[in-house]
Specification:
Elements: E1 6-8, E2 17-33, H1 35-45, H2 51-59, H3 63-67, H4 70-73, E3 76-84, E4 89-90, H5 92-97, E5 104-117, H6 118-124
């Protein structure tokens, strides 16, 4: 994989794999929204704010995205939770908890990975 590619995205529910970094780095990044700004702007548009809407704004999937002023979208930011380096594994939380991905995984530079699918992970770790 090459720099900037997404290995997975926050909210993904399919193709859950457990990864290990053999060479390079992966940035685990969370979508960050300036919540107060969005609430203020949504009031101007008569769209009600719900925590689900906030998530959907991050994922760009809700009606809020279709009707909200452009300056709301310009305030979407990302912040790095952790930098996964050579010899470190990640991606187990979604498999163990049977939930969607809680962050984005973005390739930094060139990277080589190993991975296990959900079934192999469960068998290997007796989950």
């Amino acid at each position: 994989m090459s720099h900037g590619e997404y290995l997975f995205r926050e909210g993904d529910k399919d193709n859950l794999y457990f990864y290990g970094v053999l060479r390079g780095e992966i940035s685990l990044v969370k979508d960050k929204v300036l919540e107060d700004h969005i609430k203020t702007e949504l009031k101007k548009t008569n769209i009600k704010f719900h925590r689900n809407s906030l998530y959907n704004v991050c994922r760009k999937e809700s009606i809020v995205i279709q009707t909200a002023p452009a300056d709301i979208l310009n305030n979407l930011e990302k912040f790095e939770l952790f930098r996964v380096k050579e010899g470190v594994c990640f991606g187990e939380m979604a498999i163990i908890n049977k939930q969607s991905r809680s962050a984005n995984a973005i390739v930094v530079g060139d990277v080589d990975l190993f991975y296990l699918d959900t079934e192999s992970f469960n068998q290997s770790f007796n989950v």
